Amino acid sequence: MSATIEFYVTQAEKCTAEAEASALTQVRDRNLRAAAAWQAMADKLLHTEQLRAEKDALAAAAAAVAKV
Fold first, then answer.
1. pTM of the predicted structure, to 2 decimals
2. Cβ-contact 32, 19 below 8 angstroms
3. Average pLDDT, rounded, for the chain
4. pLDDT classification of 2: cutoffs 50, 70, 90
């Protein structure tokens, strides 16, 4: 299964909502840490996809120049 940015963001939002709904400090803190971790994974995957797109664009440009 390939994780998507949307999945990570959804999990972060769910953990944030659970943290806000919790009356227990430890549970709230645990959910906030989890939300931060999910968001970090989403951010990392987004960054990776952007780098991959830039790399593909550069490769396509280089291939176009090589054909000329």
1. 0.82
2. yes
3. 94
4. low
Written in H, E and C, the secondary structure of the chain is CCCCHHHHHHHHHHHHHHHHHCCCHHHHHHHHHHHHHHHHHHHHHHHHHHHHHHHHHHHHHHHHHHHC
CB 39 within 8 A of CB 12: yes
Residue 68 has pLDDT above 80, yes or no: no
Closest CA to 21 of 40, 6, 35, 39: 35
Residue 36, CB half-sphere, CA atoms under 13 Å: how many?
Answer: 6
Distance of CA 39 to the CA centre of its chain: 6
